[in-house]
Amino acid sequence: MMEVEANTIEFLTRIRQKAPLIHNITNFVVMNSSANILLAIGASPVMAHCWAEVEEMASRASALVLNIGTIQEDWLESMIIAAITANSVGIPVILDPVGAGATKLRTEAIEKIMEDCSISVLRGNCSEILSLGSADIKTKGVDSSLSLSDRTVDAARQMAIDKKCVIAISGEEDCITDGNKVFRVRNGQPVMTRVTGIGCGLSAVTAAFCAVADNNLALATAAAFGYYGLCADLAVKTSDKPGSFEVAFIDQLYSTGSEEIEGQLKIEEV
Amino acid sequence: MMEVEANTIEFLTRIRQKAPLIHNITNFVVMNSSANILLAIGASPVMAHCWAEVEEMASRASALVLNIGTIQEDWLESMIIAAITANSVGIPVILDPVGAGATKLRTEAIEKIMEDCSISVLRGNCSEILSLGSADIKTKGVDSSLSLSDRTVDAARQMAIDKKCVIAISGEEDCITDGNKVFRVRNGQPVMTRVTGIGCGLSAVTAAFCAVADNNLALATAAAFGYYGLCADLAVKTSDKPGSFEVAFIDQLYSTGSEEIEGQLKIEEV
Amino acid sequence: MMEVEANTIEFLTRIRQKAPLIHNITNFVVMNSSANILLAIGASPVMAHCWAEVEEMASRASALVLNIGTIQEDWLESMIIAAITANSVGIPVILDPVGAGATKLRTEAIEKIMEDCSISVLRGNCSEILSLGSADIKTKGVDSSLSLSDRTVDAARQMAIDKKCVIAISGEEDCITDGNKVFRVRNGQPVMTRVTGIGCGLSAVTAAFCAVADNNLALATAAAFGYYGLCADLAVKTSDKPGSFEVAFIDQLYSTGSEEIEGQLKIEEV
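Above: the input entities. Below: the C-alpha cells describing the complete assembly.
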C-alpha cells in the first residue's frame, strides 16, 4: 500500500472517531450540501456567520472554512474575525475563493482576508487560484485553464511560497503543493462539474482532513482530494447523471473505508 | 388501535385536506429541506424573514416556526414581531433553539424570544433544551445527553411548567411533556443524525400537526414525533446511507398513511 | 415534427454548446436547486446579490433572473441595479414574483422593479401574475386560479400588452403570451407542486432558453416550459413521489435530448 493511502485511511479514521467540529462561513447555495458532505464523512458541521458569535464558534472548532460565494460586506468582517480567532487558537483555515477574478468585490475580499489572517489552504479551480497570483504567475498560468501543465504546477508552487500556504487546484487533474512537496491527484469524475457545491464541499472535506492531520497540511489536502475523487469514482458506478450521482456520492462519502481505498487512490508525489 | 394512533391519523388527514400555511423563519441551511418536508406531508410552507412582511405573513398562517440556526440580529427582531403576531391571532409557535448553549448570541436570542412572546412548543436535542433551563434543571439533566433518563424527564417536566410550553426533546428516545402529560417516543433511526436539517424538519412538522390539533399541543407534538420517526423506520428499509435515506424519507413523508401507521407508532404515555 | 419542437431542440443545443452564464438574484430556499437545474440543462449559473458586484456580474451574463421569495430591502436595490445593467447590455431579464399579492412588501417590490426596469418575461402562477394586473384584469382572472380559462388567457394577453413583456403563467396547463402570440403548454405533472423550487427552477430555465433565442422571447419561453414539463413527464416514469421524483427530474433535465423531445411536446399556438 502506498504511504499516502495509509495516511488517508488514518485521517479518515480519526475524523470518524473524533467528529471534529468544522466551522463554516460559506455561501448560501452550498450550506446544505456542505453540511451533508461533512456529516457523511463523519465530521460535525456548524454554519455561523454573525459577527456576534463567530469568535466563540471558531474557538470551539477544529477547523474553519471561509467561502466567498454570495459574499456581502458584513460577512467579510465576520470571516476576518473568525480567521483571526482560528489563527490564535491554532486551527487550520481553508479558504475557497469562489469566483475570484470575476468581480472586484470577490477578488478584494480574498486579498483582504489573506492580508489580515494566515490561511492554511487556498482551494479553488485553476482560474480562481491563478487570478490571485502576481502578474508573473498569471502569465505563467494563463494557458492552463483546462489541463494541468508544468507551467501551472510551477505557478502554484511559487504562489505557495509567496502566500505561505498550501495551494490546492481542482481540475481534471488536481495539484496540491506547499511550495516544497507537490501532489498530483487523478481521482474524480466529469459529472462533478454538473452538481453545484461539489467544489465547495471539497473545501469543507479538506478542512476536516486538516483538522486531524497534526499540521501535515499538504499531505492532508492531497488525502482529502484523493478520497473525495475516489468516492466520485465509486458513485458513477451507480449513476453518471447529476441528480442520482449526487445521492450516490453522499452515500459513498459515508460508506467508503479502507477496503475501497487500498490500491485505488491516484495520488502521485512529484 | 392505540388512541394516539387514531389521533395521529386524524391530524395527518387534516393536514392533507387543509394544507395549512406554515410560516418559517428558519436558518439558511435547512430552508430548502424544511420546505420539502412540509410539502411532502401535505402542508404549505412559506419562508419569510423581512421585518416588513412577517406580521402580514404570520397573520395569514396556521402556525409559525422560529429556528435560530444562522441567526443574526435583524432576524431576531423579525422573529419577535412574527411571534407577537402569532400570539395575537392565536396560532401555535414552535421554537427550535439550534445551538443554544453554544454561543451567547444563540442562548440570549432564545431567552429574548421567550421573554417577549408566548411559545407553544420548544423542540431541540437534550443539550440544547436543558441549556435553557434553570441552574437546578441543568444539574438534573447533566448526565442525560444520550439516553433519556428519569432525571431528564423530570427536568423536562419542570421546565414545561416554568416556561408554560410543551418541551419536546429529540434523541434516541424522545420526550414530550406539557408538565402534566409525558409522552415517550421510540420511532426513529440513527442515520437521521447524519442528514442535516432532519431535526429542523421535525420542528416544521410539529408546527403542521399543532396547526390542526385544536390546542392539544402535547398530543400533536407526540403524534408528529411518532409519525416522523416511523417514516424514517420505513425509509431505512430502502437505504440506511444518508444520501439515499434522505430521498426515501421524503417519499415516506409523502406516502405514509393510516395503513402504515396502525400498530407501528412507538408512543407511550407515562 | 412541429416547428416549435425544432426550435426547442435548437435552443437546447445552443445552451449545451455555449453554457450561457445565468445571473440569479433569487431566494434562499431555491438557490441550490436552481443552480443544479441550470447545471443539468447545460447552463452556467452564478448567484450574486451584493450591490457591490451585481453590475459587474450582470454585465458578464447572458440572462438575469430576479426572484423575490425571501426578499429584503437591500436585495431589492441590488435587483434594480442588476436589471438596469441587463437592460443596458441587452440581455433578457426574467422576473419571478413569488408570493406577489401575499404581502405588501412583495407586491410593491414587483411594482418597483417593473417601473424602474424593462422586464422580458414575468413568470409565476396564476394568482401571482393576476395580482399584478389592473383592477380590470384581476376581475377577469378571478375565477381562474386552477384551470386556464379563456378569461385568464385574455387577461394575460392584455397584461402582456400593458407591461410590454411576455406573461408566462404556470399551472396544470400553462399560458405564455407576448400580447400577440399565445402558447398553451400541457406537459408537466402534479407532483411538481410537491417539490420546492420547481417553479423557481422553471424561471431559471426560461432565462437560459431566452439567452440563446435571438429575442424570440415568447417562443423561447414556450420551449422552456414544454421541455421542463416533458422532463417531468419522463421523470414520473421513475417515481411519482417527491423525493425520488426530484432526483429523476434533474437526471432528465441533463439527459433529455432531441430523441425524447420529438413528438412529445404538448405546445399549442392559439
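Note for the figure: Residues 217-235 of chain B form the longest helix (19 residues).
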